[in-house]
């Protein structure tokens, strides 16, 4: 069994010291103000602890701080009101975060025209939500309101089973949508990660390089180099 670290984020972390929903209201994520910076640093620290340093989607360990992203479950583009809503924030690894953003932008392009015709702004429809939220309402807190596995309201293992070799099995529609949306079973990604784990498991740097040479037959040289460099950097820290 693969250790998933946490089923869901519980309890919901508090606003970091010196910040509050009221003082953050109206600010943008990239505004660069002290309030926003302290919020980001503080919430990242709190979430890392709650999530046992694991990604909210794939449950892999997040080693590097720079590759640990604060993920807005309901996108802040469509729903700016939830930018600093703590229950909308979780940490995701770089791969999952990038994949989810890609899914969202493709989705928006595909649906924008259709929804605009009906007179409803397309960004009010968010792929992770069952229904669009219009107007000023509190962030949804019931599992029935989400189409994807939400890190605060769903117990992960009830929806997604991670099998040996990091293959993801969706047990419910929510689990299946999440796996598809974040491309958890993307073959290229899975292979690269398996390669990374094999090389990591080797003792010293030299042993790792010897192992890397052996992998060149099956993987692109660029991928192997990338994985080795990342592994060496990781060990230095
Ligand atoms: Zn991930």
Can you walk through the features of this model?
The chain is mainly alpha-helical and 237 residues long. The chain has two domains: 21-182, no CATH class; 188-236, no CATH class. 42% of the residues lie in helices and 8% in strands. The protein contains eight helices and four strands, in the order ααββααββαααα. It has helices at residues 21-24, 34-50, 94-117, 156-159, 173-181, 187-200, 205-215, 221-236, and strands at 68-72, 89-93, 160-163, 167-170. It has a two-stranded antiparallel sheet with strand order 1-2. A two-stranded antiparallel sheet has the order 3-4. A hairpin with a 3-residue loop joins strand 3 (160-163) and strand 4 (167-170). It is globular, with a radius of gyration of 19 Å. The two termini are 28 Å apart. The model has no long low-confidence stretch (mean pLDDT 87). The site of zinc ion (ZN) has 8 residues, from strand 2 and helix 3.
Tell me about the largest β-sheet.
Answer: 2 strands, antiparallel
Strand portion: 5-15%
Overall geometry: globular
Record the strand order, biggest sheet. Answer: 1-2
* Element order: H for helix, E for strand: HHEEHHEEHHHH
Task: Count every beta strand, where a strand is a DSSP E run of 2 or more residues.
Answer: 4
Number of domains: 2
Oligomer: single chain
